[in-house]
Write a structure and sequence with these properties.
Helices cover 76% and strands 0% of the residues. The chain is mainly α.
């Protein structure tokens, strides 16, 4: 007996409403009627937009009672992977908060920059951003820490400011895509029910070659240009040490809960020893870090509810029917997942949200076309990070542009890594039979 609902394009209206509210208002307030004191894509909260979308989803399907729809939402929110994801978000927030307050990120970046020869400062910035983002698990956090350093390097060494900042954005997206503790990795793996190490091994096959080619291009650029004095930067080896330990534990594939708890404890101890933290600031920084995850957690709950209702109402079957007409093979299914994820990121300007929205549909596609869950998770994470590292209205480019005091569009030509990564993703799909 087939219990799948009939395809119903009308069931996708909640997502259309979200796009109109969020993307429409964002474009209007960012580019048509901008304000100096407000970034356009933050005028309408993503939580508010999804709340209206959830109301719209509840108003559909008159054959279900209100209580039945509540139960459908509860089943969506109560999925094991969603619950695991929410718990990890809490720990990741605490780790990020105390790590930043303890001065770990800036010390790690300055330590690495002091080791790298001045002539190779630009490829060095890319490498540093890759490592810091891998350890921090956040691209925006990495950009916030490394972009000011990149600006100082550009000024002191008479280097291209858009290039220096652009390579930092690229490196930040590399780490965001591969880090075991990034919210995108958590979302991609848990929604597909796989281990993080399995997604990492699949991801590294496209991310590592792309990063090597990017680094080679930047090294050639550095060799072709004369070296310059980039200045000196202060650092503490002790403050940097926990990041290297966390990075090493991640590569070993140790449980993410253990990694995050260990990292938080290490930064607490280091902060106390170096005097960068006291008992009060340590606890408050962890609390602030967790608070910073609240929006992501609420969005996850809202999207899980909307997705459950759309699935019940036939929305997912409508998307799958469209993909079936175009796909016809495993390779076509993988392209469908890639395009779906990229579109959702363009629409939401948030790679984690894009993954959470696309994940349940991607799961159906992967089952139908025989795509391995680890490959699906890799496509979700990689394609969302590619688009998030390119769109000029995403938080990553907006933060970087604000720090560099440049229009975000000026950085687009220098986002070398995301472009090369996109090429390798296409190649990896074409290699599938």
């Amino acid at each position: 007996m087939n219990n799948k609902p009939a395809p119903n394009p009308g069931a996708l209206f909640p997502i259309a409403l979200f796009l109109i509210l969020y993307l429409g208002n964002g474009i209007y307030f960012e580019y048509i009627n901008p304000s100096k004191d407000q970034m356009g894509f933050y005028v309408v909260s993503v939580v508010l937009a999804f709340s209206f979308a959830l109301i719209a989803a509840f108003m559909q399907n008159k054959n279900r009672t209100f209580n039945e729809k509540i139960h459908i939402c509860a089943e969506g929110i109560g999925d094991d992977n969603i619950v695991i994801m929410l718990f990890i978000f809490i720990l990741a927030g605490a780790f990020s908060g105390i790590a930043g307050a303890a001065g770990g990120a800036s010390s790690t970046a300055n330590l690495l920059l002091s080791i790298i020869p001045a002539r190779f400062a630009v490829p060095g910035l890319f490498l540093i951003a890759c490592l810091i983002s891998m350890a921090m698990g956040t691209s925006v956090g990495t950009i916030s820490v490394i972009a000011p350093i990149a600006c100082a390097v550009a000024e002191n060494g008479a280097l291209s400011l858009p290039l220096c900042v652009g390579v930092v954005v690229g490196g930040a997206m590399f780490g965001d895509n591969l880090s075991f503790i990034s919210d995108t990795t958590i979302a991609a793996t848990k929604t597909q029910g796989i281990e993080m190490k399995d997604k990492f091994r699949t991801n590294i096959r496209v991310a590592l070659p792309a990063s090597f080619i990017t680094l080679l291009i930047l090294i050639i650029y550095a060799i072709a240009n004369n070296g310059a004095d980039i200045g000196t930067f202060d650092y503490s080896i002790l403050q940097a040490l926990p990041y290297f330990i966390v990075l090493f534990m991640s590569v070993l594939g140790i449980n993410v809960y253990i990694i995050l708890i260990t990292g938080s404890v290490l930064f607490f101890l280091v902060g106390m020893i170096t005097g960068s933290l006291d008992y009060v600031t340590a606890l408050s920084s962890m609390g602030s870090g967790i608070s910073g995850m609240f929006e992501t957690m609420i969005v996850t709950i809202l999207v899980a509810s909307i997705a459950a209702l759309m699935r019940e109402n036939g929305g997912f079957e409508a998307i799958l029917s469209l993909i079936r007409k175009k796909a016809g093979s495993k390779r076509g299914g993988m392209f469908g997942i890639a395009f779906l994820t990229a579109f959702m990121d363009i629409a939401t300007a948030n790679n984690t949200v894009a993954i959470v929205i696309a994940a349940p549909i991607a799961s159906d596609i992967s089952r139908e076309y025989g795509v391995e869950p680890k490959k699906t998770a890799s496509l979700l994470d990689t394609c969302s990070c590619i688009m998030q590292g390119i769109i000029p209205y995403g938080a990553q480019l907006l933060v970087a542009a604000n720090i560099a005091r440049l229009p975000s569009f000026n950085l687009i030509p220098f986002l070398i890594y995301p472009y090369i990564l996109a090429i390798f993703v296409v190649i990896s799909i074409l290699k599938e039979k």
